[in-house]
Amino acid sequence: MPTINPTRPGSIRIGDELRVPRLGFGAMRITGDGIWRPPQDPAEARAVLRRAVELGVRFIDTADSYGPETSELLIAEALHPYPADLVIATKGGIVRPDKPTWARDARPAHLRAACEASLRRLRLQRIDLYQLHAIDPNVPLEDSLGELARLQREGKIRCIGVSNVDAKQLARARRVVDVVAVQNRCNVADRSSDPVLAICERDGLAFIPWSPLGQSPQDADAPPRVALQRWGREHGLTLQQAAIAWLLARSPAMLPIPGTSQLAHLEANVAAANASVSAAELRAIG
Fold first, then answer.
1. Measured distance CA(217)–CA(252) in Å, rounded
2. Residue 149 belongs to a domain
3. Most exposed residue of 136, 139, 184, 221, measured as fewest CB within 10 angstroms of its CB?
């Protein structure tokens, strides 16, 4: 395995005060099957989190809906008291009444309660990056973000981000709050967020791609994904590693957050930061 060096792709700014290496860790999959309840091996989940920090990862992304609550609790159990330079991001606005359900609830009262509960679980006085997980069609976006702005003024949130938005929704959000990050689905087969990525590049916002591998059936046979897999084989990389390397090379605004519940996969993912993709290779992959 190559030397693990997550700082090789450089760093990225989140707001005015925070800067982290441009490879983070997504803590969704340290929960149980179906992102529901505790994992089968909580000790390994905690070990994965500790190892991520040992390897130089300084950005951990989670949400109150992962488990629900489980991911945040495990992060605190494994890492508190936190390193001074570790940035923890979480999200609110989606609820899990049962395993198959991911329901949107971005009412101001719910977001306030969700944020304050996340603070308690994470054992924090202030959340570095709090993200609206998804827009609730039954609640004006301005009302949801207005409550996050109030929480920010109260010192409970440092920076605000949004997730699962298009370019018009991002523009609306930015009229209400200072949005510093966007978390959208993005991978070699799904470029639907390219207009949002372009805004992030232009204005200095962090773009946090989720589903970097693109595991949906419609993605599997997409020509760019096939080309990426071929490129990865030529360079001795797994498809997951190639996907991470592609995201890092595609834009300096990218902050990938590959997640896993296994130590071996974690080390392989972080090692992908060492891979380089040339401009010509990017064009060939498509």
1. 29
2. yes
3. 221
Contact 286, 232 (CB under 8 A): no
- 3-state class of 79 per DSSP? helix
Any idea which residues carry the catalytic annotation? 66
Q: Which residue has the tokens 């709050």?
A: 177
Please name the amino acid found at residue 259: G
pLDDT band at residue 49 under the 50/70/90 scheme: very high
CATH of the domain at 115: 3.20.20.100
Query: Which helix (DSSP H) or strand (DSSP E) does residue 234 occupy?
Result: helix 223-234
Query: Whole-angstrom Cα distance, residue 135 to residue 17?
Result: 26
Contact 229, 215 (CB under 8 A): no
In a domain, 231, yes or no: no
Mean of pLDDT over the chain: 94
Number of domains forming the structure of the chain: 1
Q: Which long-range contacts (CB under 8 A, 24 or more apart) does 213-217 make?
A: 213/187, 213/239, 213/240, 213/243, 214/187, 214/188, 214/189, 214/190, 214/243
Please choose, from the candidates 247, 262, 271, the residue with its C-alpha nearest in 3D space to the C-alpha of residue 189. Answer: 247
Q: Is 118 among the domain residues?
A: yes
Structure-block tokens of residue 102? 């991911």
Does residue 226 belong to any structural domain of this protein?
Answer: no
| Other beta carbons less than 10 A from residue 142's beta carbon | 14
Contacts (Cβ under 8 Å, ≥6 apart) of 109: 147
